[in-house]
Task: inverse folding
């Protein structure tokens, strides 16, 4: 049985008619930039996120950068980010000339440790970026409390958390801005690159809208320097067609994750993901912790199972950031060697989940046996 890490074809097949109709409508309109689907999607996505404003843009990295720039963050400012995340969370900070200051993750978790954040605040700290990694909401109460105490902006990286909830509220509604990516494999994915910023602040929404479009406030009036990072009409049409299905897809992801949890609960060599109380995660990825991760991942791939690693090199050890001295990030560095993403997508079938779990158990037993053999051969 061959099981991919994600299966975008299965999703398209499940709603082909709706997607095809949306694409045809956008193509026939031929208003590819600034067409009607962009506004329609922005309105629908704002409603979905339970926030007054959503502003589309070219991708999730730009959503982060445009939100920070609109908040006035720039050269010399420090922004606290997790190191255990996709590179773009930190890259967006550096693109503005600001300095990403890397914080460790919580013990036993995947997201920012509020105590580590509090220790890193200096006079230059302007903002903190909680990343709701793999669809697990961060400890927002604690992070918001630190932000209030030190007058920091909170910019949420929701690129893996469309629709997740923390104490009943959608992620993306806690900070000044919630930044989303619609990269094809995300929980809500376009057919190319796309992103959005959601906010309750109309002036912030207006500034992001100007920045994404050459700093324009009207067709020929450029109030400032901006960039070209627009959401295009075709992507918006695809997103409009997909958005009504997002909650059901997230529910299917949670069901699949619960099934993995159940099948792996009694396997002592596998650490299944912990869920924070009072949160509704959306499992962008189902990530376990295993010993000898690289060997396990390769063994799964040899058996036609699409195992992933998110992420093998923490941001603070990536070359553009590695020259700066960083406080030790022991939990992050340990995680980078242990995390293993198992196949998970809304359409995955129960027998596929069972097969992945059984194969993972078999691989771990094989490795243990081989190790015992190697040890006893070494002793002889
Ligand atoms: C995907 C992702 C981004 C960047 O989004 P793009 O649309 O690829 O630019 C940022 N942060 C996280 C956590 C992501 O997963």
Result:
């Amino acid at each position: 049985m061959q099981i991919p890490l994600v299966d975008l074809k299965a999703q398209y097949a499940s709603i082909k008619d709706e997607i095809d109709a949306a694409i045809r409508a956008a193509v026939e309109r031929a208003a590819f930039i600034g067409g009607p689907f962009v506004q329609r999607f922005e309105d629908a996505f704002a409603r979905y996120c339970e926030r007054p404003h959503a502003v589309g843009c070219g991708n999730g990295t730009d959503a982060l950068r445009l939100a920070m720039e609109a908040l006035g963050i720039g050269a010399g400012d420090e922004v606290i980010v997790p190191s255990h995340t996709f590179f773009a969370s930190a890259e967006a900070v550096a693109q503005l000339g600001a300095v990403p200051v890397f914080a460790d993750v919580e013990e036993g978790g995947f997201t920012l440790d509020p105590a580590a954040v509090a220790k890193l605040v200096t006079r230059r700290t302007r903002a903190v970026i909680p990343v709701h990694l793999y669809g697990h909401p961060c400890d927002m109460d604690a992070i918001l409390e630190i932000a209030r105490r030190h007058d920091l902006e909170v910019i949420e990286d929701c690129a893996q958390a469309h629709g997740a909830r923390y104490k009943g509220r959608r992620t993306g509604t806690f900070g000044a801005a919630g930044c989303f990516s619609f990269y094809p494999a995300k929980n809500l994915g376009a057919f190319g690159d796309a992103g959005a910023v959601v906010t309750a602040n109309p002036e912030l929404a207006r500034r992001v809208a100007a920045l994404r479009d050459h700093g324009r406030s009207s067709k020929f009036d450029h109030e400032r320097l901006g960039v070209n990072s627009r959401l295009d009409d075709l992507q918006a049409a695809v997103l409009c067609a997909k958005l009504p299905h997002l909650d059901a897809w997230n529910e299917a992801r949670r069901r699949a994750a619960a099934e993995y949890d159940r099948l792996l609960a009694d396997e002592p060599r596998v650490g299944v993901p912990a869920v924070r109380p009072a949160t509704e995660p959306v499992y962008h990825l189902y990530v376990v912790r295993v010993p000898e991760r690289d060997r396990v991942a390769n063994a799964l791939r040899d058996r036609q199972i699409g195992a992933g690693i998110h992420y093998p090199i923490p941001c603070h050890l990536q070359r553009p950031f590695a020259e700066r001295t960083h406080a030790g990030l022991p939990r992050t560095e340990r995680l980078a060697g242990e995390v293993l993403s198992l196949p998970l997508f809304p359409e995955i079938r129960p027998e596929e989940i069972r097969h992945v779990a059984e194969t993972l158990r078999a691989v771990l037993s094989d490795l243990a046996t081989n190790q015992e053999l190697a040890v006893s051969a070494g002793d002889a």
